[in-house]
Amino acid sequence: MPRRIHILPDTLANQIAAGEVVERPVSVVKELVENALDAAATRVDVVVQNGGKTEVRVADDGTGMNRDDALLAMDRHATSKIAREEDLRSVRSFGFRGEALPSIGSVSRLTLETAEAGDVGTRVRVSAGRILGAEDCARQRGTTVVVRNLFFNVPARAKFLKSAAVETRAVVDALISLGLANLSAALHLESNGRNLLDLPPASDLVERVAALWGDAFAGELIPLAHEVDGITVAGLVARPDAASETPRRVHLFVAGRPFNNRGLVHAAEQAYRTTVPSGARPSLLLYLDVPPGAVDVNVHPSKAEVRFRDRAAVEQAVEAAVRGAVATLSSAATLDRTPTLPQLRRTREAGAPTPSTEPPGRAANQLALFVPTLGPLDVEEQEAAGEGEGADAVPMESRYALWQVHDTYILAETRSGLIIIDQHSAHERILFEGLMRAFDGGGEASQRLLFPLTLRLSPSEYSVVEDLQPLFRQAGFEVEPFGGRTVIVHSAPNPHPYFDAERCLRDMIAELAEGSELTRSATNQYERLAKTFACKGAIKAGQQLAPQEMRRLFDELFGTELPYHDVHGRPTIVRLSLKELERRFGRSG
Ligand SMILES: Nc1ncnc2c1ncn2[C@@H]1O[C@H](COP(=O)(O)OP(=O)(O)OP(=O)(O)O)[C@@H](O)[C@H]1O
Ligand SMILES: [Mg+2]
């Protein structure tokens, strides 16, 4: 009888393995960046073209490889990271299977350039799994891998790739996750020539979180640290009073690697139960460590999930850790917050009449109507979005696809359609709340002017400065009445890069002197000043913004107490639902 069983040729075996490891461009990015971080890189540069479908390039300044290792790395099961079965019990590196490079190489055209310190570099070229050659090349220590034309030799897989925008978002999200797993390396992402992520080395988690999502978001988080039976849980979680408002972000890590686990998210949410309204989704950045052998990291083809030996114990530890952090806060929080803003928050939460800055009822109603969905999808939503995405589908982070139109409005995709924010109104809201908070705290930061300004004012304007001088100082304006209707300005705040301190201050003084609807609607001097500052100092319509600036505006707006209206009570956000779009295009019914 003829034999029916035979060993698959290497290239075919690699392609089959690639089916599991390389699902889409983001898998390539993830594997290559993980390799860079495993090689102790201090800086990783990622460039993608067309969502990574056309090209992914990852360059690092890590240890690099000599020629033998560079060639060996393209072989299946070639790894420097573990040697024995026991090593897997306590593995700290991202990689351990020795499958990523050969898998990627089998479904693309791959070029690897690498050099160890002081050595001549090697370039290896691979196409559809075949090594085309290895040659000398000049380069500094480190490794660059370029992957072009993903799935060019497996058209059936290429067909399943999503739009470039969707793939790009997945890449951003994967890098955010790796950026939270490794704080000390600088991470940079460019997509079609646009800079999408620029993370400097961070000395702690708060710093990295602020670089990713802004100071306002970072300020809404509380630290936690907990240990029981060798299980440690550390990280940052949302303050209970912020849990329902800021966009939600969930990231779990164990032994330094990201993973998904719905049970643990649920356990953490349980800890909030008595402190947040039901349905609130707190942000969670949780870093777990367990004794060697207590977690199996090799249970999922792309390592998106892990298996804990004692799942219940880990869930209990997470719940206890979060509960502990929330409990310490709730006693302190009532003391250190001053009346103005918490009052606004309480008013809205209780559904009581909204404060005077808001048209009655509108803010509360809109909140109930829609909560912006700019955070990553959480685990449940990923699963619901599921089919074809795979269990490790990277959460989509819509906030990275922001469009500015007419240098005035910013568009962002949400789960149920799209939202448009008015950049000036949004920034007014941010500045107003920021200054009110600064009045309660130590005052606004300010910058000393290299050349002090001299302003000549009308008598009524001059007396405004005399009356409000201490408040101006707290707002960051060091103004000195100099006599003869002249004031000297020594320092000014710097709320955004396009800020014109002189113009802002002149306009503020004029408005405060003349009085307006805005200043009359204020209940006290602090509010009067904060409203005029917000109105005059905010980014103007017609100002072109860089992508990071737009992102920051979004982050900060959704970090405010009342994001939906500016200080005049005008809307900051307009929503266009998919339903509405469908209706207008005649798609409905
Ligand atoms: N950027 C890099 N710098 C230095 N060495 C690298 C780099 N990328 C890969 N290597 C070397 O090549 C080997 C193979 O890489 P590959 O990603 O295929 O496997 P791995 O990282 O060991 O395991 P896994 O398949 O789980 O990722 C690594 O073990 C490492 O020694
Ligand atoms: Mg690897």
Protein model, in words:
It contains 20 helices and 22 strands. The strands form 5 sheets. An 8-stranded mixed beta sheet has the order 5-4-3-6-2-1-7-8. Strands 9-10-13-11-12 form a 5-stranded mixed beta sheet, with helices on both faces. A 4-stranded antiparallel beta sheet has the order 16-17-18-22. The protein binds adenosine-5'-triphosphate (ATP) and magnesium ion. Residues 31, 34-35, 95, 100 line the site of magnesium ion.
Largest sheet, spatial ordering of strands? 5-4-3-6-2-1-7-8
Number of helices: 20
Structural class: alpha+beta
Report the principal-axis shape. elongated
Q: Give the N-to-C terminal Cα separation.
A: 63 Å
Strand content: 15-25%
**How much helicity do the residues have?**
25-40%
Ligands present: adenosine-5'-triphosphate, magnesium ion
Mean model confidence by pLDDT: 82
Number of strands: 22
Radius of gyration computed on alpha carbons: 27 Å
Low-confidence stretches: 330-399
Instruction: Characterize the largest beta sheet: strand count, sense, and whether it forms a barrel.
Output: 8 strands, mixed
